[in-house]
Amino acid sequence: MSTRRATISDVAREAGVSPSTASVVFSGKTPVSDATRSRVLDAAAALGYTGPDPRAASLRRGRSGIVGVVFEEHLGTAFLDPVKTLMMDGLADAVAPLGAGLLLLRDQESVGAGATLTTAPLDAAVLVGCSGLLRESLAAVRARGIPVIVIEGDAGVDVPRIGLDNREAQRQAASHLRSLGHSRVAIVALPIRAGWSRDWIPGDAEITIDVTRERLAGARDVYPDAATYAAAGSFIDEGLAAGRAIFADPAKRPTAVIAQSDLLAAGVIRAAEEAGLGVPQDVSVTGFDGIVVDGLAPYELTTLVQPAAEKGRAAGEAVAAMLDGGEGASISFTCVFREGNTTAPAPAE
Amino acid sequence: MSTRRATISDVAREAGVSPSTASVVFSGKTPVSDATRSRVLDAAAALGYTGPDPRAASLRRGRSGIVGVVFEEHLGTAFLDPVKTLMMDGLADAVAPLGAGLLLLRDQESVGAGATLTTAPLDAAVLVGCSGLLRESLAAVRARGIPVIVIEGDAGVDVPRIGLDNREAQRQAASHLRSLGHSRVAIVALPIRAGWSRDWIPGDAEITIDVTRERLAGARDVYPDAATYAAAGSFIDEGLAAGRAIFADPAKRPTAVIAQSDLLAAGVIRAAEEAGLGVPQDVSVTGFDGIVVDGLAPYELTTLVQPAAEKGRAAGEAVAAMLDGGEGASISFTCVFREGNTTAPAPAE
DNA sequence: GAGAGTGGTCGAATCGATTCGACGGAGCCA
DNA sequence: TGGCTCCGTCGAATCGATTCGACCACTCTC
């Protein structure tokens, strides 16, 4: 049938009230008498009206109930990272009270591609990282008065950000190793730039990914000359490959490895086992993130626990505050050092 | 300043054209002379107009460019599952040409919670699984004429679904084991219902989760009496726990284990190693999903490769078709058996 | 009994853009 | 030069709901 769907005016007419009253019955913003309410509800049922059209409502109220989350990488890749997953979780929790949902957006603006920062009906946007590509659409979004916040990235001075004390935290782990007497230490870093393939990097390599750079700086604050191998991503298999490279030459084996993520650390541990090295007797390994690494038992990583879910939650709360007309404040989170059973005093020479 | 943001009418006035013409400049739906176009664009720039308001546009066009993805579980949990992640990826790809994005929705309708199926401006909805809870909101959504499709679940006869030949596929794996001469076989199943804690289950246990039931049926088609241990989720650690339970009694050790997911299988393999059993010499293990299990090398699971990304893509395409006025058709995908190095002939007694 | 307060309902304006048929003028061919 | 087509622009209606002040009929209170 070609009869178009019922609108709230139809319902109002059917119930013999004005559209405004009918609207109020559904939104509950104003008291309505029980008699009226049930008349309207009955009329709605009779007409098959299932509530106000969200599109029209969002136009009128100026709110869509949608918070965009923008990732730099392919969606599938983003969710492979447990830290991001946790963060999303916290974010989802924090925006729920706003009655908002999370819209997944990709950073790329390729032609004919999906919803973008500029075309989606967003109330706010949360950037996870921030590449150059993003910058221009960002301007448009901000011009429109949409609150923007960035997690682990830099989107310009006036965009509030949620950060982490990466350098300080990593320094803590390194200090821990030094206090255990380790002097020959290797570092397994995260990728140093987009599209990076695993390899050793020189001490003065240019590093465009903030997290990598900061954590590396922290490690080098303690071990300025530590050999560094940068992986192609945060995966156990990458850590394994890095570990193999590191333990390849028995003569140059370090007594400790600082990995920039727990997954990398897990791989390094496996490589150590492969090489016949005991963890932590022969080699100590530290991670970063404090996530649960599935399948790592019985090891418990010595690592830096970062409040991943909290970061997401904080972003959500900042968004809420900005939507309320407040100022978005930058927040920096602190990692907590957690000693597991993967670090021990350096073996006697 | 309290000057409200510029609208397209403001731009039109500034440029000395009608609003309709200005609109057309931005949408590109109708040819416009170059002179007019640049006048409008200049006016827009002068006024700081950054393009049509998506809210208003979506009201008028009747499309929001948003496809809702509804999960049964907590978001964080959903993304822990590599199969779902892949599926999301495929889905994202398939809806991109529609100019649509993915809105994450949770199944729960708790009070004051976030965006819901009924309050979000959706063009279509994709359900991942379908619990009872969902059913009612589903009715409202469908009444509104929004296409709905379900992946791995049952939302009623008239909701098209994307399925998998779980039973047939699992039977294939079991047959493979039988052809290798295995007769003492154990099964490690996925959870049999929501909130399940790992434990052995009797042969006649009631199973409310479709995937689990179907795969189990496939395995039992070949090994009707196989002891079955149901895990609490699809994780390596769960597989490890299950494996320990299975290999606990040396007298009753099976020579093969059918795991309902690759992650479970990985855990089982680890448990076997722990128990001093070689894989595949002493015990064969099969998985299900065909994902890349990070850190499982050098093993290559004998498993059933399911087209996870394809499922998502198919869902997206079905949505596109339905949005085009077509009928949404149910599709069933087929798994491909892949022999790795985790199965071998049964050891001699 | 008059004035103040109150709970509920109504009207009308508004949110901002899109779309479709109409229309005016320019170019083309005979 | 007259009729015809085609292109670009314009007007006006429309998408569906929300909101705010006005208003009305009562009920308290003194």
From TrEMBL, chains A, B:
Residues annotated as domain HTH lacI-type: 6-61
SUPFAM superfamilies assigned: lambda repressor-like DNA-binding domains (SSF47413), Periplasmic binding protein-like I (SSF53822)
Record-linked CDD domains: HTH_LacI
Keywords annotated in UniProt: DNA-binding, Transcription, Transcription regulation
Protein name: Substrate-binding domain-containing protein
Originating species: Microbacterium deminutum
